[in-house]
Amino acid sequence: MSDVRDVIVIGGGPAGYTAALYAARANLQPLVIEGFSWGGQLMITSDVENYPGYPDGVMGPEMMAEFRRQAERFGTEFVTDDVTRVDFSERPFRVWVEGEEYRARSVIVATGASARWLGLESEERLKGRGVSACATCDGAFFRDKHIFVVGGGDSAFEEALFLTRFGYKVTLVHRRDEFRASQIMVDRARDNEKIEFKTPFAVEEVLGEDSISGLRLRNTETDETEEVEAGALFVAIGHDPNTNLFVDQLDHDANGYLVTKPGTTETNIAGVFAAGDVQDHVYRQAVTAAGSGCMAALDAERFLAADEGHAGTALTAPRPEAEPTKV
Ligand code: NAP
Questions:
Q1: Which of 316, 291, 322, 286 is nearest to 304 (CA)?
Q2: What is the DSSP letter of 223?
Q3: Pocket test for ligand 1, best of 46, 155, 158, 235 (most atoms within 8 A of CB)
Q4: Could you say which of 137, 144, 187, 253 is catalytic?
Q5: Domain edge (last residue) among 201, 235, 269
Q6: Which residues have a Cβ under 8 Å from the Cβ of 238 and sit 6 or more positions away?
Q7: I want to staple 200 with a disulfide (CB 3.0 to 4.6 A). Which of 4, 167, 220, 313 is the partner?
Q8: Strand boundaries in the chain, DSSP class E
Q9: Is 134 a catalytic residue?
Q10: Considering the domain boundaries, does residue 55 fall inside one?
Q11: Nearest residue CA, atom 34 of ligand 1?
């Protein structure tokens, strides 16, 4: 069983790399199967202004490269590919990347979430031809165009604000008159003279043959439709958890988010833990994902120590009752 690892982490975002960092420092020699597009959602984020420790902000990809480097420093190994199958029905747990099988005594699932799409045939057809879900990746293609953003949460506002660097005008389309976004983002957008609001409207169709030429919008109160010219459409309507690989083996809620025991990262299978956005539809922040990645590594470490007396050097396992400090 020498090829059986203590910990495999599936997913290379803030949760996965933080879990790896803690597991590596506990001498558990984690393997992170980080995905072909490692780094997670922060790879398509511009300035991160709310991660503590970066008072001047940091670019998302730069921050993820630093997370990865820090995990690597303590001996984490990486497979830069996508997991294609898992079997958690018996131990050691088994994880496959195509034909390659990996085995481990514990697994931390940290596969995150992915951008949601409107689900229109025309949206699918014009992806990469004016329709995008990533302003950081594609915004610069639409210099001096009239850019539309759909959504009413922080992501939509963030995208809209970022896109004012490129478009001559940015119109934010939202299906309700109230926004889910935080007040500071709404205020910033309202103060930006390049941003207009179109509410309560839904995008009913993306118009254009080979590239986007416009949108058909529907007033969600009156049902009246209108067509507008558009140079680009950025979809920013939230995310879905990346749990297809796991839903037949791990407990999940109606939206596919993995369910963990409150206050822990434990799933319904002992030895399998879940961290980050894959199990959190409430907070979904890099800092909360990183925090739960840390929790998952500590939970895995304690599980291994209790289960098999084989948890490497338990740097962070519960300590024996300390003598009270005398003053
Ligand atoms: P979100 O808060 O869930 O907002 C999604 C928005 O898209 C909602 O306004 C929703 O409308 C709309 N929507 C959903 N499905 C739709 C559909 N089929 N058609 C049209 N509109 C649709 O998602 P998010 O903006 O991605 O934010 C997720 C989390 O990340 C939040 O906690 C947010 O605070 C955080 N975040 C923070 C920052 C930041 O602080 N810099 C940046 C980005 C994200 P309804 O409101 O009508 O449901």
A1: 316
A2: -
A3: 155
A4: 137
A5: 235
A6: 115, 116, 151, 153, 155
A7: 220
A8: 4-10, 31-33, 47-48, 58-59, 77-79, 85-87, 93-97, 100-109, 113-115, 131-132, 146-150, 169-173, 195-198, 201-207, 214-219, 225-229, 232-235, 239-241, 272-274
A9: yes
A10: yes
A11: 154
* Shared domain check, 244 and 105: yes
* Confidence (pLDDT) at 309: 53
Between the CA of 150 and the centroid of ligand 1 the distance, in Å, is 10
- Asked whether residue 99 falls in the same domain as residue 245, the answer is yes
Q: How many domains does the chain have?
A: 2
pLDDT at position 107 is: 98
- Ligand 1, CB within 6 Å, residue ranges: 50, 118, 150-156, 158, 175-176, 180, 202, 237-239, 284
Q: Which CATH number goes with the domain that contains 271? A: 3.50.50.60
Reduced to 3 states (helix: H, G, I; strand: E, B; else coil), residue 168 is coil
Using the atom order of ligand 1, give the atom closest to the CA of residue 119: 18
Instruction: Judge if 49 and 183 occupy the same domain.
Output: no
Between 275 and 137, the higher pLDDT residue: 275
Q: Is 294 a catalytic residue?
A: no
Task: Give the distance (Å) from ligand 1 centre to CA of residue 148.
Answer: 16
Q: What pLDDT does residue 284 have?
A: 84
* pLDDT, tens digit (0-9, with 9 covering 90-100), for 164-189: 999 999 999 999 999 999 999 999 99
pLDDT in tens, 217-260: 999 999 999 999 999 999 999 889 999 999 999 999 999 999 99
> Can you tell me whether residue 172 is helix, strand or coil?
strand
Task: Please check whether residues 49 and 35 belong to one and the same domain.
Answer: yes
Domain range holding 68? Answer: 4-114+239-305
Q: Pick the residue whose CA is nearest to atom 11 on ligand 1.
A: 152
pTM above 0.85, yes or no: no
Q: Is pLDDT at 48 greater than 90 in this prediction?
A: no
Q: Is residue 80 part of a domain?
A: yes
pLDDT for 155-166, tens place per residue? 999 999 999 999
Residues in the chain: 327
Pocket mutation for ligand 1, best pick of 237, 280, 283 (most atoms within 8 Å of C-beta): 237
Q: Domain for residue 317, yes or no?
A: no
